[in-house]
Design a protein that fits this description.
alpha/beta, 7-stranded mixed beta barrel, two-stranded antiparallel ribbon, 6 helices, 12 strands, globular
Length: 275
C-alpha cells in the first residue's frame, strides 16, 4: 500500500509539472503575439458623420478630496456625449435594414473572427471615388486562398492617413466653403455593392471594415453596400486605424463594441492579434 501511495504521489507530481510547463508555454506563446490597436482615440478631434453630433464633454470634475496623505484622495469624472456613428465604430445591421440586428443583438461569437486584409490603396491614389470590386477579392484569393468562414474582411485604402484632417478625410473640395454637415461633396473610397453582394452570397463572413468614414463610398446616395450587409446581418466597421500595419492574413479581429440596446451602431475598441 505504501508503494502504491508513493507511485501515486510521483504520478501526481509529474502531471503537475507537465501542466505547469504547458501553461507556461501557452502564456509565453500568447505574450509573443503582436497586438495592433485598430481604434482611433476618442476626444475633441474625433470625426463623426457630418450630420451627427460631435463629441463633447460636460460635468467635468478634477479635484483633490480632503488632505493628501491624511485620508484624502484624487477624484476625476465627466459626462461624455458621442454619436453612435463617430470615431472608430460599428454599423449594426439595423443601421440600413429594417429587422436587422441592433448592436446588442449581435451574438458575441460573431464579434470576432479570422482577419483578412484586401488592399486597394494603389487604385485610390488615382481615384478617390473608387471601391472594392469583386475582382479584388478574387485576386486576393488567388494569392492567399479562400476567405475563411467567420472572417472579418478589412479593406485597406490608405485613406485613413487623413483622419486628423476633416477636409481631406471627407474628400471635400478645398476651394469650396462648405458647411460642416455637408454630405453632397464627399469623396472617399468604399466597397462597391456588387463586391458586398458577392461576399454575402459566396463567403460566410461576419463583418467588413474599412479605414474611411463609410463602407459605402463618399458619392453613394442609396448606401446600397450598407443595405446588402445589413440584410445579411453582417456588421460594418468604419474609421479604422493602422490598417496599413496588418498583414494580408494571419490575424484575429476582436470587435469590442458597446452593448447598446436598440443601437444602430456604436463606438468600439477594435484590436487585431497576429500569429
Amino acid at each position: 500500500k505504501i508503494i502504491g501511495i508513493e507511485r501515486l504521489i510521483v504520478i501526481v507530481m509529474m502531471l503537475t509539472q507537465m501542466l505547469l510547463l504547458f501553461l507556461t508555454s501557452l502564456v509565453t506563446s500568447f505574450n509573443n503575439r503582436k497586438a495592433i490597436d485598430l481604434t482611433h482615440p476618442v476626444g475633441e478631434n474625433t470625426i463623426a458623420w457630418p450630420t451627427a453630433t460631435q463629441f463633447t464633454t460636460a460635468n467635468v470634475v478634477k479635484t483633490q478630496v480632503g488632505v493628501e496623505g491624511e485620508g484624502g484622495y484624487w477624484y476625476e469624472a465627466r459626462d461624455i456625449n458621442q454619436a453612435e456613428h463617430s470615431g472608430t465604430h460599428l454599423d449594426a445591421p439595423a443601421h440600413f435594414y429594417k429587422g436587422g440586428w441592433h448592436t446588442s443583438d449581435i451574438p458575441l461569437e460573431r464579434l470576432t473572427g479570422p482577419g483578412v486584409k484586401i488592399s486597394i490603396e494603389e487604385r485610390v491614389v488615382k481615384d478617390l471615388d473608387t471601391g472594392l470590386v469583386v475582382e479584388d477579392i478574387l485576386t486576393w484569393e488567388e494569392q492567399h486562398g479562400e476567405v475563411p468562414d467567420g472572417a472579418v474582411v478589412i479593406i485597406q485604402t490608405g485613406h485613413g492617413r487623413w483622419y486628423g484632417d476633416k477636409v481631406k478625410y471627407f474628400g471635400r473640395p478645398a476651394e469650396l466653403d462648405l458647411p460642416e454637415n455637408d454630405t453632397e461633396h464627399l469623396h472617399f473610397p468604399g466597397v462597391e455593392p456588387a463586391a458586398a453582394e458577392w461576399l454575402v452570397r459566396n463567403r460566410n463572413i461576419v463583418g467588413l471594415g474599412i479605414d474611411t468614414p463609410s463602407t459605402s463610398n463618399g458619392q453613394s446616395r442609396d448606401y446600397k453596400t450598407h443595405q446588402v450587409l445589413g440584410e445579411a446581418n453582417i456588421w460594418g466597421l468604419e474609421n479604422m486605424a493602422r490598417t496599413e500595419e496588418l498583414p494580408s492574413t494571419g490575424f484575429v479581429v476582436y470587435n469590442m463594441v458597446h452593448k447598446l440596446e436598440g443601437g444602430s451602431g456604436g463606438p468600439t475598441r477594435v484590436i487585431a492579434i497576429l500569429g
